[in-house]
Amino acid sequence: MLKAAGGIRRSRIGTYWAAALLAVAVPLGGCGVGTEKAPETRYFVIDYALKPEKKSARTTPVTVGVDNFRSDSVYRTEKFVFRRVPYQVDFYPYQRWGARPDEIVTDRMIDHLLATGSFREVVRSASGAPSDYLVRGRIKRFEEDNVSNSYFADAQIEITLIHRRSGKVLLQRRISRRTRARTQPPHGFVNAMAENLKGLLGEASAQIAEAVSNHHGRMAKRP
To answer: What gap in Å lies between CA 181 and CA 162, rounded to an integer?
Structure first.
């Protein structure tokens, strides 16, 4: 398991790639003989293994901070969001994430940046730790898509990289990925979303590492 510099902890993430069952029955009220048992509310986490890349001469001696990701309002909930028609979203009543999508993506973004081995340090900006560069992000989509009668995990994020001293935006991207679930929801959807995030954040971390390296190199050459 990766450990982040500067006291970063992955508070919400476990150690296995899987849909992890965290909680059990939540009564909806009433008790006694003849009362129907309430459905279980189940909580799932996203996790997958990341192999740390070997440090090389290309490691940039800077600190990168990661700000808490934001999200569009419909995704500011632990409930699973799904779409059956293009113009409407709904929520599963008893399937939920172990944390809001913005918290999950923030934690995993830190893990991906650490795994690149491209920086001296990666810190969580909310901790107040100083940094040379700042990564900000926003979740634009984080849902199950069943519009075509097949189950897909649909994710889209925006990332922005800022040079802290000058305030200059060095990188701004919107990255999308859609993965078909191999099994029925909820487990198939959770695993498909994990595959989505691994690809999305892997692509984002590589672009961030390249942008930081190029900018730092140009700054170093200035008289």
So the answer is: 35
